[in-house]
Please model this.
Amino acid sequence: MDPNKSLDKFLGSVIGAAVGDAVGAPPEFWPADKFARIFGGDWVNDMYPYVEMGTHPLGLWRPNPPRGTSTDDTRHNQVFIEAALKHGVGINSQFLAMEHMDRYLNRDKYYPGYHELATQQFSFFYVDACAHLGVECPLRPGVPPYVIESRAAGSGYPLAHGLYAIPAAGLLHPGDRVATYKQAFELDYQDIGFARDAYAILATMIGLAFDESLSPRQIIRSALEVDPYGFDQRPWWPRAMVQWVNRCLDIADAAADERELVVRIAREVAGEPGFGSKDLLGFAVAAVYYTNGDPRRSILIAVNARDVDSEGRLVRFRDIDCTGSVCGALVGAIAGLAAFPADWVEACLKANREVYGFGIEANARALHRAVLGSEN
Model:
């Protein structure tokens, strides 16, 4: 692939994830009446400014920050990119866990001015990282590491850590579906069950975006066929995440418009946790598939993930900064940054630089050089 084109895809995926995060964050979890009062209607149709927004360790670290500011999704993806640049594209889960420990232990160095919020965000990752490395965590004295890794203490559902925290791992082996799937699955040390498969599927879709022989829809369908560990060789136990994504794609094929697509998937995930891998991957992939890889339309579909009543009316939005981030990472790799709304990109890069000191574009360019050796 031409280096300029591959760079555009790297920039698209890394910056696109931050953009999707920033589009979904302003009305995340809002009920219908609050959204109607502040923005009007019941449909997210742009990157909005922040209104009536406080701070949260997993959300914004500055109250009512500039339009385009991202949340923990972007903070974690930048940790992964910096870890890959430090340890090389062959980075494994142990090195990633070490970086998560480092971010907690040296949070004042990495996130000056945000001590308490950084403590709360990274303490969860610190506990899991200690367990993964087989050492007792000072935050959980007396608890054996294997007990924490068992996920028995309330997080034993296939959630979505890999999907929102390390989408950039899909860029490490452009075009190589098997290598991408395997490394992604191994890196996702915080997830269990079909959530690890969900993340590896997303990473494989991102990696396949560099195969110029495939259309956007073929990229998505082809990734679902990748099975290096033989999960589908157990006919008595269907591969849950492949079955689920195919269901979402069928809904996309049958949907008359964006709203019908969102409402039908919303009914399918009723009762599921908003931070579940079915939720994040289903809305995001169906959106990219439905629009055939249009960044603006895809992200807007993904960030309208919602709970609905019996009539299909909005009750509240779900974890839409995460669905937006997952969608942005995928559609950005497929379409490239040049296809994104310029004002979204400009606002996102400027806001994240101002609020967090992040050089998101510089990190994406450095990752491109590290993976493909290009000096663009």
